[in-house]
Specification:
By secondary structure, this protein is of the alpha+beta class. The protein is built from 12 helices and 17 strands. The strands form 5 sheets. It has an 8-stranded mixed β-sheet, sandwiched between helices.
């Protein structure tokens, strides 16, 4: 996704764009081997949908016509944050319920249709070509040939080759920040039917200290729900019917239990593991070759529980578009990496701050982190009765507002008032697993 969106904006400044993909490129919206997380539940945040619409006007309507529902995240989703059910209210936070393959296919089709764009599937990059003084990247090496380019963009994800290639060329590797979270998540799709979970489009609960489990139900295309069970710190969600139902019964998310118990499965359960969040600090390098960029997960690979990756990649593409319009194509890397670092800082602080609530997660816990986590917990308590608090939280979570917006005086006063109401948390549903390994009744 990061490479496709970068190609979209680069097509406005360059005559020819070559997208090199080591994977086979499917002709339809199906999961592919090169995107192992593609079969997992995906969440496109509200700001991500807006950014994609800026880059590819009309994409929202196109995806709706393909069956993806447009969802008011505050009014049509139940949020059980820290086991406190947020009060719903109409909002402008609109997101799409869809699978990763559908989104990627729609974006790829739009980008491939742009003048001068060429996609080379089943082609792997083995290294970079440079000017004699190695100050400029002049292309890439692929099997049997070199592709010359005025600009090379590495969108190879968290396992991209740039750190090693920089070392081979005599440059420093970027410093890395890592947060080991040990996330395992399991996704299965189910058929939606009228009245299921009260005709809502989704429900979610987060993991908390002492309970490193989480769950999501999210509507998607083809009248389906995607169900995701998630565990941190080595917690392993099961993939069998009885085990999934029992796991769901430990969560304060009755909607999850309802779907697993009563809906017809539409796919097998698939497992994905994510050991560590990684942020690479390219903006701190003193030397970096000209004619070269790194984008998306190559810069920062977020804990997938928070659904930030595609949105940040889209915002980086908009940043690249602004730089091309104001400064041209010369010396793009320094301003791009500085701007991307500012974009990443907010979502990174949200994700890492939440992860550091768990004593088992290694990392610095200064007074700021401890205060913010306690404050947000009290915000969740107040949001059970005050929709303004829920709206403020969701705007930050969806990267519409910065995290500091939650500390505004008006919000802080509402948090204080809500804390003294002492709401009752959601109680995990009592679940009796099936006595046999037979499928759950639907």
């Amino acid at each position: 996704m990061g490479g496709l969106l970068a190609a979209r904006v680069l097509s406005e400044a360059y005559e020819k764009i070559v997208i090199v993909d080591r994977d086979a490129v499917p002709d339809s919206a199906v999961a592919r081997r090169g995107v192992p997380q593609g079969r997992q539940l995906h969440v496109l945040l509200a700001r991500g949908r807006e950014a994609l619409e800026e880059l590819l006007p009309g994409l929202t309507g196109e995806l709706q016509r393909a069956g993806a529902p447009l969802v008011d995240l505050h009014d049509q989703v139940n949020w059980h944050n820290d086991a406190y059910l947020m009060r719903r209210a109409p909002s402008s936070l609109l997101a799409l319920g869809l699978s990763r393959p559908l989104l990627e296919h729609a974006v790829r089709e739009r980008v491939a249709a742009l003048p001068g764009v060429e996609i080379r599937p089943q082609t792997s990059v083995s290294g970079l070509t440079t000017s004699p003084d190695r100050r400029r990247i002049t292309g890439v090496r692929v099997s049997g040939e070199a592709i010359e380019a005025d600009l090379v963009v590495d969108a190879g994800g968290r396992g991209c080759g740039t750190p090693a290639w920089l070392g081979e060329l005599g440059y420093d590797r970027p410093a890395e920040e890592q947060v080991r979270v040990g996330v395992t998540y399991v996704t299965r799709t189910y058929r939606r039917h009228p009245g299921l979970i009260g005709n809502l489009y989704g429900a979610i609960t987060n993991s908390t200290p002492g309970s490193p489990r989480a769950g999501i139900v999210a509507a998607m295309e083809n009248d389906r729900f995607a169900v995701a069970l998630m565990g941190m710190l080595g917690e392993q969600p099961p993939t069998d019917d009885a085990g999934m139902l029992e796991f769901a019964g430990t969560l304060p998310l009755p909607e999850l239990t309802e779907v697993i118990r009563s809906a017809e499965p539409a796919s097998d359960a698939v497992t994905m593991r994510f050991p560590t969040s990684v942020r690479r600090r390219y903006e701190r390098l003193r030397r970096f070759p000209d004619g070269y960029l790194v984008v998306a997960d190559g810069l920062c690979s977020f804990n997938p529980i928070y659904g930030q990756g595609i949105t940040v990649a889209a915002l980086e593409a908009l940043l690249l578009r602004r730089l091309l319009a104001t400064s041209g194509t010369h010396r793009l890397a320094p301003p791009f990496f500085r701007g991307a670092a500012r974009l990443i800082e907010g979502p990174w602080s949200i994700a890492v701050g939440q992860d550091l609530r768990f004593a088992e997660v290694e990392g610095r816990r200064g007074p700021k982190v401890r205060f913010v986590n306690a404050y947000v917990h009290r915000l969740h308590m107040g949001a059970t009765a005050d929709p303004a608090l829920g709206g403020a939280f969701l705007r930050v979570l969806n990267l519409v507002d910065p995290p500091t917006a939650l500390l505004a005086p008006g919000v802080a006063l509402r948090v204080l008032r809500g804390y003294f109401r002492r709401p009752i948390p959601t109680i995990p549903p009592a679940v009796v697993p099936p006595r046999s390994a037979d499928p759950v009744n639907w």
